[in-house]
Structures are given as C-alpha cells and as structure tokens.
C-alpha cells in the first residue's frame, strides 16, 4: 500500500488537527500515516529520520491490520459456531 502511493493519498486528506477517529480518516493506515505526516513537518531535510518515522508508521499499520483480521476471524468463528 505504501509503495502504491498511500502516503500521497493520505497527504491529500491530511489535516493536522483533525480527528482521526471518525469517517474516512479512520480507515486502515490513515491514522498511522497522519502521525507520520505530523512528525515529518518537524524534520528539516533529515531523510534518515523521516525513513525511521515512516517505518514505524508502516509497522503500526501492519500490527493494526493483523489485530483487525484476528477480530474479524473471531467474529466469523463465533457466527459459524
């Protein structure tokens, strides 16, 4: 998702002070990328720091996606049984 342009897509809807708990801003990856975009503005020209922050956001996206997937599988299992 990140290689396909996720950062640019989130950048288009990014508002630093907006709530990332409702609507489109709650989508998988958006809150994590918003955190990256907030921090990115505070780092002038330090590409290594930006990469580290981006990698932390990507790790959060992966972790949160796994949690969501497990919750969905648990719900499916509950419905089946």
Automatic annotation (TrEMBL):
Signal sequence span per UniProt?
none
List the InterPro entries. Answer: Dimethylallyltransferase
Organism domain of life: Eukaryota
Q: Which GO terms describe its biological process?
A: cytokinin biosynthetic process
GO: which molecular function terms? ATP binding; transferase activity
Which Gene3D superfamilies does UniProt cross-reference here? Answer: Crystal structure of tRNA isopentenylpyrophosphate transferase (bh2366) domain
Q: Name the keywords, alphabetized.
A: ATP-binding, Cytokinin biosynthesis, Nucleotide-binding, Transferase
Record bears the keyword Membrane: no
Q: What is this protein called?
A: Adenylate isopentenyltransferase 7, mitochondrial
